[in-house]
Design goal:
The chain is α+β, with helices and mostly antiparallel strands. The chain has 9 helices and 23 strands. Bound molecules: the ligand C=C(O[C@H]1C=CC=C(C(=O)O)[C@@H]1O)C(=O)O. Keywords: Isomerase.
Amino acid sequence: MSASPGSRAALATRGPAPQLVVRSQAVDGVSAQLLDHLPDEGGLAWVRRGDGHVGWGVAARLDVAGSNRFQEAMTWWQELTSAAVIRDEVGVPGSGLVCFGSFGFTDQDPGELVVPDVIVGRRGDTTWVTTVSPASSLGAPPELVVHEPSPVYDVAFADGARTGTDWSSIVADAVRRITAGELEKVVLARDLIAIAEQPIDLRWPLHRLATAYPNCWTFSVDGLIGATPELLVRREKGLITSRVLAGTIRRTGDDEHDLALAASLARSSKDLEEHEFAVRSVAEALEPHCTSMNVPETPFVLHLPNVMHLATDVAGVANNGASALGLAAALHPSAAVCGTPTPVARDLIGEIEGMQRGRFSGPVGWMDASGDGEWCIALRCGQADPDEPRRMRLFAGAGIVAGSDPDAELAETNAKLVPMRDALGD
Ligand SMILES: C=C(O[C@H]1C=CC=C(C(=O)O)[C@@H]1O)C(=O)O
């Protein structure tokens, strides 16, 4: 599966939203994994523990950038869904009309919403197919075929915008500026370039990510693929949830030692401080949208195969009609990917990080016609190069506070790059 170079400009929808006819039907006897159904071009995916949905084709698409991007996307989706004729015979989250989407970290980084022609979804024992067609040409549900991805061989990795040593020195600079009182926390990121012998079939790393990181959300949207552990926001039937992560320790592979490390993470004042900034930013952004909110006082330790994180699950009851995307817009950028205070951290990132993040650390997810959906933060991910299909940019960042050690932060970003490196066969 390639990223369909050039699709961004060619398929951009700027005029009135098209009128779509949508039908979701349950299908029996489908035992293949959702990702197995992805064709070799332009597939979309959102999978966790075998559930989720995959899609292909483009029934409608909006490309957005600029300070009004979230509002533009919401208006487009509102118009598209109100004009659509939807026959949903399944009635579970993800059936009916859905779009996949991703947004840049900054206003200038482009993002998109995509409605596929075909969506295959699964929730527990229910598997369904959704077809989306223009009103004039109602399509029949396709035969579900299993496709084999091509293995990725001989991947070489090279520094991206900065060497590790240079990146550590900008972390040291950030620590000085935090100590001087300019700000409290900033999240700094770096990139790594992966170059394979042959064009990269994105389905290969996607399968490996979904297998190795079943508790993460494995995604593919327009050439951005990854397995993220951080749920920015889910809205489902009036319930709003968010999983906030910040504060990290590497795993060693020795279970007993890792348990001791988890205990030290839970006591680390530097990590607890870093985590607290992130929780506060999420709680403050969600508060106007919730009647009652549960924000646990103490984080738990989330164990992933490569790292452990301090984690807090925030929950609330929606008190207004804000869609999942509206909530994601209110939350982005949280202090898990930007810092505190947000504007100062954002400026510092622009000043010293030395690279364009693109859609890394922006919202990535999906939404249905009622506005329910899930938006995660695009972490542990890579961006396929639209001009060179053998190449991907991989990303990782780390939260910097007054007590941060630049070498330890560099090691942390290396641990966060492991999922994508392994998925590409390193
Ligand atoms: C910015 C990243 O992680 C964020 C999410 C979890 C833990 C983080 C940390 O401990 O620094 C970061 O805030 C990344 O994975 O690239």
